Amino acid sequence: MGKKKSHHTEKNSKQQSSQIKKISSVKRAEITLQCERLFRLCSDPAYATQLWDNYLEITKILEKIKRLEDMKTITTKRSTAIKQFIDWLKDNNANIDGISIAEFPGFELGLKAEKSYEANELLLEIPGKLIFSVETAASELSTIQNDPLIQHMPQVALAIALLIERHKTNSKWKAYINMLPTNYSTVLYMTTNDMIELKGSPTLEASLKHCRNIARQYSYFNQFFQNNNNQVSDLLRDVFTYEEYCWAVSTVMTRQNIIPSRNDSQMIHALIPMWDMCNHEEGIITTDFNINSDTCECYVKRSFNKGEQIFINYGLRTNSEFFVHSGFVYPDNKNDGFKLRLGISKSDPLFNDRVNLLEKIGFTSSMTFLLENSSEPITDQMLAFLRIFSMRKNELDHWLESEKIFDLMHRDCSLDTVVEENVKKFLLTRLKLLISNYPTKLEEDIELLKTTMSPSRKMIIQLRVTEKKILAGALEYVEQWIKT
Fold this sequence. Notes:
It catalyses: L-histidyl-[protein] + S-adenosyl-L-methionine = N(tele)-methyl-L-histidyl-[protein] + S-adenosyl-L-homocysteine + H(+). The protein is α+β, with helices and mostly antiparallel strands. It folds into two domains: about 15-75 and about 130-325, set domain protein methyltransferase, domain 1 (Alpha-Beta Complex), CATH 3.90.1410.10; about 335-484, Rubisco LSMT, substrate-binding domain (set domain protein methyltransferase, domain 2). About 45% of the residues lie in helices and about 15% in strands. A hairpin with a 6-residue loop joins strand 6 and strand 7 (about 265-270). The longest helix is centred in the C-terminal third of the chain and has 29 residues, at about 455-484. It is globular and about 75 Å long.
């Protein structure tokens, strides 16, 4: 069971209630107009290579929409909701003995050990009836189940389900929803000034695409709720805003898990109360879903002393993935990597031969590989692509006819010296270029982290540091490889 949840789950520890005043008809007409513009802007394929300009235009429209939607809510501190939440869990037979919710520096809220735990000891059990999914919550969603986004995008469906329960008068999930953060540290909450700090990083593209996708979904649902009559539209029509949608999407992105459906026919997305209060630490994954007892069971991954924060492992993800989808960076991430896109130019006179050879090993003419955070940063797959990329006509002809084509993925594969030298030279040049794309040097970023700055900027610089360390390690590896 993999998980995505934010380390820094909120910028403040407040939680919104659903007391929202209705938007006037004049403002509503303007919002509708802006949403139509936004949808077109987010759907225009012409912006595929102009992501930054697209993002700036999208942001301008969203700023107008947010001003028009200015729907302030009465807020209460999350800490005041803890007792009600714990009581709700116990009343519904959750086993949470030995743990409590507490604040921890740098993490906001997390789970605290009220006794000492040994590795693999049972930590908590959450019954299926308390697990938030489209099967257990928001029955109203069935009235729009044929909508393409609801039907084909389970995370979107879960986000809309969360908004339905948030705005229902008597939701059985009220105690859980009141424990959720008001906002998050995901890219959806970052400013253009924050995003500029990502210049040179491959994570910038992923961040911009994510923001565009969410803006498109918001504009789609805004128009859908205004123009349709069904239970969901009637409930959300007057309360659905961009900020509400960002909150719901970020809640799902940072806290979701995959569990078996009630009839065990498929895996579905779900939110698991209390378990989703755990923060991330590397180690073994010790959470599973017991189909027989319909219970989420979590075991401690290592020993914890009384008073310590209890961590779980969210799964094998790079810091770029944690950053975009979970809103944090894990500095010592052993599973980290730097995405490197490689491709064969169509103007290459040997394009067809290279592509034919690539296809024989299951590759395409353009691929993204991961420079790994290890002593062997160049994967076998990347090496095979680069070898084909660097071959001359006679080598391509030889390997197109060879029965041992997968030997290209072996490091000790016998190849012409010129091909291997070209691979090394290409990597050396490319790595130096990637490092130079950043506006700052690694040493400068390390010094910057010692200064005071906003949480968002600090997280971005932490990300830059981890990316640059991977590039530096790969460059050192290639330089040593050239010498051999």
